[in-house]
Amino acid sequence: MEQSFERQRLGEGIFFSSIADSKFKHSRMTVCFVLPLQEEWAADLAVVPAILTSGCRELPSLALLNRKLDELYGAALSGDVGRIGANQLLMFTIHALDERYSLHQEPLGEACAQLLCQLLLDPKGDGQSLDEKDTALEKQSLLDSIDSLVNDKRRYALMRCKQIMCQGEPAAQSKYGTREQAQQITPQSAGRAYQRMLAQARVEILYTGNGDAQGVKRVFQQAFSQVERRPLVWEIPAPKTDAGERREVTERMELAQSKLVLGFRTGGKRTGEALAQAKMMCALLGASPMSRLFVNVREKLSLCYYCVARLENANGLLLIDCGIEEQKKDQAVGEILRQVKELQEGNFTSQELEQTRLSMTSGLRAVGDSLSALETWYLTHLLEGQVVSPQEEQLAYEAVDAQQVAQAAQRLQLDTIYCLAGREAPHGDA
Amino acid sequence: METRNISSKRLGEHYTVLQHPSGLTIMLCPMAGFSTAQAAITTQYGSVDLSYETAQGIQRSPAGVAHFLEHKLFESPQGDAMELFARTGANANAYTSFDKTSYYFTCTDQFQQNLEYLLDFVTHPYFTAQTVAKEQGIIAQEIVMYEDDPDWRVYFNLFQGMYHSHPIQIEIAGTVQSIQEITHETLYDCYRTFYNLNNMVLTVTGNFQPEQVLETVDRLLPPAPAASLRHLLPQEPASVARPLVEQKLQVAIPQFQFGYKLPPLEGKAQAEMLVVDELMLDLLCGESSDLYQNMYEQNLINSTFGQEVLAAPGCYASIFSGESRHPKEVARLLDQEIRIRQEQGFSPALFELGKRALYGRYAGMFERVDSMNSLLMFGFMHQMDVYSLLDRVADLTLEQVQQRLGAYRSDCSTLSIVWPQDGQEETEGSVAQHG
Question: Per the CATH hierarchy, to which homologous superfamily does domain B2-232 belong?
């Protein structure tokens, strides 16, 4: 089922988009503040969503705020920090039951929008600084999040590979900022970051579902008309296009299974048809059910449980990762590179290409079946500067041919081989 | 064919349950407006089924067979079933849990073709010594991967503390040693026992035509032989085996799971108790509670804190989990709060709010193709109408919740902690400095 998409300007650099679809029992609204990811601001900005979603002047404690959410039929509130390429995103979301399904048909959409506006525009604190106690708590929480990146070894290895490979580029930076900066957070510095967010960020508000979008829009329009705006204009630096000298890095910690990551440069950020070609290539290589890496590295050689390729278009990167026994690392690297070469030489069947295409178009058709997938879809495209519906993107995939896939693969240049391994090097290892 | 229509006035929706002559139970819920369809075929065979009784007598199998079968069933002499699904663009996968193994696909196109693939590969096992040996390598890497996963470790360590002999404490995939004992004969034996259609359900949700399902099942599935199967579990005392289980791993902040072992229940009674416990746990330490706020403000817990109920054959436990530098203090406060609430009761106003929130969350489970499919499976395993869950929430009383709290005994709890490799462990009095 096709959704209708509408976008409207509410104020300077403030936009409201609604995606209407009647089949859901919930609705979802997100206010997303977009700023350049800059080292000096990253940590202070990263702590703001957590502080603002801890309470506001009218609901000053976590318990009171959550009781209000309970009253709204268990509406789920979240405040998150994210990133896309060189942009840092501060996101505030409420996911709530549609009034049609409430016990007494209460108008829940507007009530949720009002609550979100209160949290965003009427925080505790003195107007300059954010609340001292909340800041201290959420600063610790941010430090915990930074420290806990090591818990998930797979994600940690991917992050380390990018840090080593992309030193000095936005791709190496964390959406949380550095630990050192997080330690410097004060109620004043968080307050400055909050003011920056309100005045200078680009603001994208999205409403997805079947409720009263006009009513919700009016609440946001009214609330944001009180905000003094001086939106920033910034240029996104183009990612590096070429690989440097090939690096091979092994780091060790206490673990049972080694994590191998191969980092490639894709020749830069792509848009339109070229992006569709790069995505098809990545899927055929290692991101579809019968991908080359799944069939060969896992199924034929039994080297691992997973071996996956992912494209980070905004950073101009393609990363391949798998979990292996350390002594089989060379064998795994060899097989992965052999599969990349096969694609570069066009050694894949038309059946493989068609299967990949089907898997991708099927994925696109499924976007409309989930509120959060729809929201992510439109938000990502809004930030990339070109809104297309999933149906329109399907046409782009349908046009990709084998030669274009091979060309996209030919642009891959191996930059870094990273391995996170156990404390003990295997015998015979130099 | 026996057919029942189940509907919900609250949601304006319905599904159908059919008893097919093959022995298979079929549950169908077409959902208007959705593009995806999901079909799952599920057998009541999970990781805890290590001991069972058939017409041949009492049988035992090594740990990890249910999961091993899940990996191997996709294979046929012609190749891998994944390849077939790939031809239609469908996404096929499978999983093994404590009490079931499920094979499913989601697709937006060629539904009937995909359903044929699914029913065909699940009913045509093909195992050889070579293919079993190859899979041992892949599964061993899957098991080793979980050894480094602190979330997983702290969870299974909790069960090892809580249970004396119940197989829930063994990893779902088994151990690197136990999977070496599995041969193609073991797989065939267990397949014949547990993949009898009388022990299975087909659940279909989303964008499909019910007639397509019935036509395909009629064509592909002949009646299964009647079979007697009894799942056997060891006698498990009410007490816990160990109140504290600790391990060190490469983590930044200690992780904990704190669980109360409760008497096991079956079928509908289990499902109904889950609803009571979910609400009770929310009231006790959900984000709206005073206890949550206090622990959060003292930095004893962070936003990873949560609570859940685990129900499996012969097991029932309420579990609190998260990251904390003072997990023992968190466990102490939780237990203390349970004693206080046992004496003083919950506030009626907060009870009403909690109920409303739970109602909203439950209603959301009926709006997605995948979660609706899981709900149907849940309905099959618990022999109940799944819409009644929503009515159950709406009808809950404070007395029911209050009464349930009495079952939580301090001496039936276990705390599992994963400490950082080189960090300081919590010592007596360390919280005082902290607070």
Answer: Metalloenzyme, LuxS/M16 peptidase-like (3.30.830.10)
